[in-house]
Amino acid sequence: MTTFHVKPRFVTRGDVRLAVFEQGNPDGETLLLVHGWPDTHDLWQHVIPHLAETFRIVSYDTRGAGASSTPAAVSAYALPELARDLFAVIDAVSPDAPVHVLAHDWGSVETWEAVCEPGAEKRIASYTSISGPNLDHLGTWVRERLAQRRFTGPLAQAVASSYTVLFQIPVVGTLPFRLGMSRIWPTFLRFFDGMDASLVRPAPTLRTDMITGLKRYRANIRPRLRHPRERRTDVPVQLILNRRDRAVRPVGYEDTGRWVPNLRRRELDAGHWSPISHAGDVARLTADFVGDLRLDTTTDSRGGGTA
Q1: Distance (Å, rounded) from C-alpha 99 to C-alpha 26?
Q2: Cα separation of 46 and 282, whole Å?
Q3: I need a labelling partner for 48 at 20 to 30 A (CA). Which of 59, 70, 101, 275 fits?
Q4: Alpha-carbon distance 259 to 270, whole Å?
Q5: Are 174 and 214 in contact (CB under 8 A)?
Q6: How does pLDDT run across 140-173, given as a tens digit for each residue?
Q7: Count of domains forming the chain
Q8: What is the CATH number of the domain that holds 61?
Q9: CA of 130: how far to CAs of 22, 28, 35, in Å?
Q10: Which phi and psi angles does 291 have, rounded to 5°?
Q11: Domain range holding 155?
Q12: Is residue 307 included in any domain, yes or no?
């Protein structure tokens, strides 16, 4: 595969500086990659080589991770702030054309916040989501299933998400990461996801990123699950559902089509960290989705669409 030079830069929004990295085909459509917890932009290092010849690829360290700023207040990690960061990066790297977005884990959660904002379809051409739900959709789904006395799905997700209760407790939630979790992270992912530990290349900031990133859980989970908002989007969305995901169960997405008219579902026989363990599959599904959307647009512009 062709090796592309990485161009680093910073995008500033208020007091926050976001470390942004550009590579790939400068003439291709822009594909923005958004990582989750406790990763940095390096999460995508196995995915990028499969896409770099086709797309202009932009990744960034979200606030509180890697080389980006680390605000101290928990409120600084609320979803609206994270979505504004994403839009700031889009405006800086592609002011004249909408971008495609591929996101994982908390990167996916915050991208859901962005794509449901009014006018998002003018800035985001497509969104491929992996292992990170829209918290408002999830909250509504749980409440409705419980009201219907359909407990199986919510119970499965509650068990999978039980660790997040610990993460929301100040001081106590950070103890595993202060006591050395970062040192055994590849081994943990081998156990948790069944992946080849040699594929895991932790960032040097991992320990700090783990601790700071817990503020996302504290700022968002309880407010959104307790008081879910009505959130819709006209952005085309692809869900990559990892069948062996121990943290985010596919059943939690069964109602997503209510809020996303243009929705595609694809499954992988993968665990939570599929961008590492199944990088080629993630890249292929993302490129296929963008290509199919491009074909649909071309067909409609030529008068070949159906009424």
Answers
A1: 13
A2: 10
A3: 70
A4: 26
A5: yes
A6: 988 988 898 886 876 788 777 767 766 777 766 7
A7: 1
A8: 3.40.50.1820
A9: 21, 23, 10
A10: -65, -40
A11: 7-301
A12: no
